[in-house]
Amino acid sequence: MQGSIWRIGALLPAAGVAPLGAHVLMIGTDGRIAAVTPCDPGELTEDEAALVAMPALANAHDHGRGLATLACGVQDAPLEHWMVDLSRQPRVDPYDTAVLALARLAGSGVAAVYHCHNTQSSAALLDEASAVSQAARDTGVRVAFGWPFFDANPLVYGDHAELASFFPPERRTAIATMDQALRPCATNMALFEQAAALEHETFALHYHPVAPQWARPDTLAAIAAASARTGRRVHTHLLETRLQREWADACFPQGFVPWLDEIGLLSSRLTVAHGVWLRPDELALLAARGVTLSVNISSNLRLRSGLPALGDIAACGVGLGLGLDGMALDDDADMLRELRLANLLMTQPRAGENGPVSLPDPAPALHAAWVGGRAAILGTADGGGQIAPGAPADVLLLDRRRIAWDWIDEGLPTDPAWLLARATRADVAHLLVAGRPVVRHGRVVGVDEAAIAARLVAQARATRAASPPDANAITQAHAATHAFYASGCHCRQP
Ligand SMILES: [Zn+2]
Questions:
Q1: How much is the pLDDT for 311?
Q2: Could you tell me the pLDDT band of residue 351, with boundaries at 50, 70 and 90?
Q3: Which of 13, 65, 123, 423 is most buried, by the most CB atoms less than 10 A from its CB?
Q4: pLDDT at residue 380, as a whole number
Q5: How far is the CA of 38 from the centre of ligand 1 (A)?
């Protein structure tokens, strides 16, 4: 790889560090930052002076959906209802959907993403992983691939024989036995070993027990043991919704998160996503074990999961990352807007505080977007998330002219307050990952994003026309799952 030199009007070197003025960034041939030196702003062109450089963003929880759920007629709704609707999604090319998702994220300044894989076809998991691996290579975005372990509770949290009684008689046997089709842990572990051949510089496999309610207890324990043995990270959804909280409390009266600790799952190698319904003592336990929490604010709003207590979470000491979960607020994969939401929620007054409200400190939200989420994807030894000599050259360069069009002092603002208040993907000028230009002048370099998007939508429309979803079956499943939860069936101990 060739080295490069970037002249910039302003620099945000790291979370909690004061912004700096004009600098020259030198990127080495090893993909790391070679030097960061001040320069005379008078030497810069107008385009260079408009740039502010900062660490690239990390999206700590996502699913790689190039085709939006809304596009498939899956309306935003409470998670358990929404998941039934996901069967409306047509099967599409796994490479196109993955590469489009990565290109969109790159266009909003994301250099690294945690991709929790949802299979389109469980039988095709290896091929789908191969497609995501290729998409990571082609876009240059760093991808941690969460290899799904999904072997419990396919449709509801609880007894599927009981769920079957809410379905018409002709569907009851299939519903009651549907968990038998799920891939057992040992088979999945063997497949995981095969998939390790897909790893490359920007693509790594992680264990992804989809959630404690969607993996058997012995599977969770096996993954905890495998992670301790291999050092590979683990990523799981945790307590995203109220119904999951109710299920967990009923099934683990001795304490749900302490039980996860007992089986060895809680460690500095673990990331949990959502945590909307975590209690303070559980947050403290996660913090004590060095667990990272990825919060997904827009997703929680759209899927009516509730809001994570961001102020309490930021204060409890747990490692924190931000995730889009494929459900950005405006459905546009904009990580910069997610950063804005996180910063606003993290700096609101908290219950129990008195007197003047503290001045907002942007450092915790910036740390989550630059460092905390990155650790969930790449581990903690990577040295990224800062603009400093020796750090990986994962650099986001924003053009400040749109953001600060009405700034009345000379020059352009350097304070991150402007970035946090106004920046969107429209302001992304360039993105470097390991020094490689992934976005240049606002366009993704490695792939033709517009052509892929057009191809993907055309394919989805053709598939939809050829095999429309079974609306009647979906209506039945909605009615049955609603009745199951309304009757409290998820709160019965197995
Ligand atoms: Zn998710």
A1: 84
A2: confident
A3: 423
A4: 80
A5: 42
CA 63 / ligand 1 centre spacing (Å)? 6
CA–centroid distance, residue 10 to ligand 1 (Å): 35
Angle at 361 between CA 360 and CA 367, to 5 degrees: 140
* CATH tag for 4-55+386-444 (out of 2.60.120.280, 3.40.630.30, 2.30.40.10, 3.30.450.30): 2.30.40.10
> Residue 409 Cα, ligand 1 centroid: separation in angstroms?
43
pLDDT tens digits along 278-331: 999 999 999 999 999 999 999 999 999 999 998 889 889 999 999 999 999 999
Strand order from edge to edge, sheet including 23-27 = 4-8, 23-27, 33-38
pLDDT, tens digit, 9 for 90 and up, residues 168-189: 999 999 999 999 999 999 999 9
Domain boundaries defined on the chain = 4-55+386-444, 57-378
Q: Which residues pair with 110 in a beta bridge?
A: 57
Whether residue 117 contacts residue 128, with contact meaning beta carbons closer than 8 Å, is answered with yes
Q: What is the C-alpha to C-alpha distance for residues 10 and 411, in angstroms, rounded to an integer?
A: 10
> What is the 236 CA–ligand 1 centroid distance (Å)?
9
To which residue do tokens 């208040």 refer? 421
Contact in structure between 55 and 365 (CB atoms under 8 Å): no
Q: What is the distance in A from the centroid of ligand 1 to the CA of 262?
A: 24
Separation of CA 138 and ligand 1 centre (Å): 24
296 Cα to the center of ligand 1, angstroms: 8
Tell me what pLDDT residue 106 has: 98
Coil, helix or strand at residue 54? strand
Single out the residue of 456, 435, 445 nearest to residue 387, CA to CA: 435
Q: Is the pTM of this model over 0.90?
A: yes
One-letter amino acid for residue 262 of the chain: E
Rounded to the nearest whole angstrom, what is the distance from the C-alpha of residue 417 to the centroid of ligand 1?
Answer: 29
Domains 4-55+386-444 and 57-378 belong to one CATH topology = no
**Separation of CA 51 and ligand 1 centre (Å):** 33
Q: Strands 395-399, 428-433: parallel, antiparallel or unpaired by DSSP?
A: antiparallel
Q: What is the pLDDT of residue 438?
A: 98
Confidence band for 493, pLDDT divided at 50, 70 and 90? confident
Instruction: Supply the pLDDT for residue 314.
Output: 85
pLDDT at residue 363 in the model: 96
- Ligand 1 centroid to 21 CA: how many Å? 39
Q: Which fold has domain 57-378?
A: TIM Barrel (3.20.20)
Task: Give residue 352's pLDDT.
Answer: 86
Where b means 16+ CB within 10 Å and e means fewer, 412-428 reads: bbbebebbbebbbbebb
